[in-house]
Amino acid sequence: MEFRNDKKIDTTIKYVYYLISVILCLFLILLTNRILSDLGQSATYPNQANLGNKAVTDSLAAIQKSIGFEIERYESKAAQLQKNVDLAEKNYQDAKASFDNWLLTRAVLDDPSKDKAVIDRTEALDNYFNIRQNWNKEAFKIQDTISIWNAKMTAINDQIYIENEQTTRLFNAEVQSYDLKVFLIRLLFILPILLLGIYFYLKFRNHKYWPLFFGFTLFSLYAFFIGLVPYLPSYGGYVRSTVGILMSLLGGYYAINKIRTYLEQRKVELQKSTEERAQKVGSDIAFKAYEQHICPSCGKDFMFKNWTLAKQTPNDAGFIVSNFCRQCGFELYKNCAQCGEKHFAHLPYCSGCGVANERKA
Questions:
Q1: Alpha carbons 126 and 114: distance in angstroms, whole number
Q2: At what angle do helices 6-39 and 115-204 cross, to 10 degrees?
């Protein structure tokens, strides 16, 4: 007879089943991510250029362009005038320096015949001064005109800013509407998958093809709780918070009811006789309970310290098992009717002689 390690085989089979579930789940996730991305094209993304009062913005843009042209033209004139002012200033300074030198020479020579020349030179110097003053006046006028046009440009820019702000608000509202619409479309696609996954888990978790159903359930949970997160509209975090609160309330309500129902059922179950409870203990449950030394009826540990042995050998306190559960009174060990050997009462066969357990036969 070929030797078999059933425990290793069972563990390997379990890993293979879970591997099948994970592989199916991964490929379903890849497919769904692609579908969710494509569903984003099911609605038209808003175009900011089509929003707002186009006639008003076009008119303001035209006025802005016209004012900008005028400012450019006058700034060009101002630049040319500044050159003329600089040239006039230079001519005046040169003439004044020449005149001052000439006056100094005349004072040294003290020549009265030069009086007319003094008058002529003074008149020429005054002429340069007047030219400089006239160019300065023109330059000031141009600067005043540029200031007026700049004020008009500022007013137009303020109006354009107000229009752009209003357009931006409209665009943001359209984007939020688009995000919500696309999210609802994706939700309509994902929600049936989640419900189907929950149904599969509740109805087929003990089916012979349970790894496939379990893989789909894992995928449905990922698709709803993780796959939809990047597409969930935020609205400043209100939607995410509201969804989280609702899910917490619903999940908490469901979990609390399940726990309370389970505890009530356990309470009623523990009130039944040992024989009635024993009939509901299957082989799988019995093996797990035996290996983990817990009562198959109430789940409490049935091993306890042997305090007498502990006092004799305090460094190596032993453990013993009880024939009945200290918590619920459930029978755990009994003597075999065939060989008298004590064995776990809920396993299929006696560990002493191999005869079928009378309750499991």
A1: 18
A2: 140
Q: Is 295 in contact with 302 (CB distance < 8 Å)?
A: yes
Q: Which two tokens stand for residue 219?
A: 């995928």
User: CA-based angle 141:146:151, to the nearest 5?
Assistant: 130
Q: Which residue has the tokens 């899910």?
A: 247
Candidates 288, 358, 290; CA nearest to 321 is 290
**Distance of alpha carbon 147 from alpha carbon 154, whole angstroms:** 10
pTM: 0.50
pLDDT in tens, 153-163: 888 888 888 88
Distance CA 240, CA 243 (A): 5
243-251 long-range CB contacts below 8 Å, 24 or more apart?
none
Give the whole-angstrom CA distance, residue 121 versus residue 105: 14
Query: How many CB atoms neighbour CB 130 within 10 A?
Result: 12
pLDDT at 276: 64
Nearest to 207 by CA among 21, 26, 31: 21
d(CA 271, CA 266): 9
Please name the amino acid found at residue 318: G
Q: How far is CA 26 from CA 50, 208, 321, in A?
A: 42, 21, 46
CB 142 within 8 A of CB 81: yes
- Residue pair 3/194 in contact by the 8 Å Cβ criterion: no
Residue that is written with structure tokens 């390690």 in the block:
5
